């Protein structure tokens, strides 16, 4: 996927999966606002590009996701929530992050919500 197409997709859809090549292009072109190592699934980043604020993260399966958020404050809240969830995972809470629905949930279950 080209960077131009990614930006167009993100202006229409809140969540997009990208390949690692596109991730490299995105990181080179976007402004890095924040970067945190999750210690479980790699880095979670807040980026801005072409007026969009986005959060980039990875699933445990290695899928690279880019999520458009309304504001930098919303992005900060999402990152803080994710980091708190990863911290609970270290404590073996049984938590799962629903990367595709935007909600975390407790206990076992599929990570992807088929209704999305």
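Q: What amino acid sequence fits the structure above?
A:
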């Amino acid at each position: 996927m080209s960077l131009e197409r990614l930006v167009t997709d993100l202006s229409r859809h809140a969540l997009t999966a990208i390949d690692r090549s596109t991730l490299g292009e995105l990181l080179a072109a976007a402004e890095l606002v924040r970067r945190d190592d999750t210690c479980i699934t790699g880095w979670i980043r807040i980026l801005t590009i072409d007026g969009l604020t986005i959060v980039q993260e990875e699933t445990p399966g290695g899928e690279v996701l880019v999520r458009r958020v309304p504001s930098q404050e919303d992005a900060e809240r999402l990152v803080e929530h994710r980091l708190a969830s990863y911290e609970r995972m270290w404590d073996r809470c049984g938590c799962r992050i629903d990367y595709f629905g935007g909600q975390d949930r407790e206990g076992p279950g599929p990570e992807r919500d088929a209704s999305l």
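Q: And what stands out in the fold?
A: The longest strand covers residues 31-37.
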